[in-house]
Task: structure prediction
Amino acid sequence: MFVHHTDSPNGYDCAETPGIIRRITADQTAGRHWDDIGYNFLVDRCGTIYEGRAGGADRPVTGAHTQGFNHRTVGVAAIGTFTQGAEVPEAMTEAIARLAAWKLGLSGMDPRADVRLVSSNGKSRFEKGETAELPVIAGHDDGFRTDCPGAALKAHLPLIRERAAQLQGRTA
Result:
């Protein structure tokens, strides 16, 4: 599971989220010529989880979120910009943890573990065919050269992993 931020304003009213997602979808479909939004899920500051890429939330839908590692992974986008010093809402991190617990639980994955993924192209941080050992819940920057998901959100990933494991009923 790769965690992203949408690099959009943080001060939105949560009632505006559907419109924000429509704009992101329009940018990715028209601007990048993709057939759908790249993220499998999006989470707003109030903790509402939205399905992104069509195909079924409980199915292994291939997204377009982390070049080189889209196959057999899930892309979750936190709506906003979470660079150093930005506030990351607790409702958002709790929702990401709940989503991770459920989605990773479908395949029996421990959110605190590492996973071995093979890069499908050389545009990621890894050469095509190279195996990368990454956290099961990773930041976009773990697999691709980017500042996403931002330092503030990245700092919350250990807590998200632990909370997701707790929600799955896993003990230390």
About this structure: The mean pLDDT is 95. Helices lie at 17-31, 90-105, 140-143, 151-167. The two ends are 21 Å apart (CA to CA). Strands lie at 2-5, 41-43, 49-51, 75-78, 114-118, 131-135, 138-139.
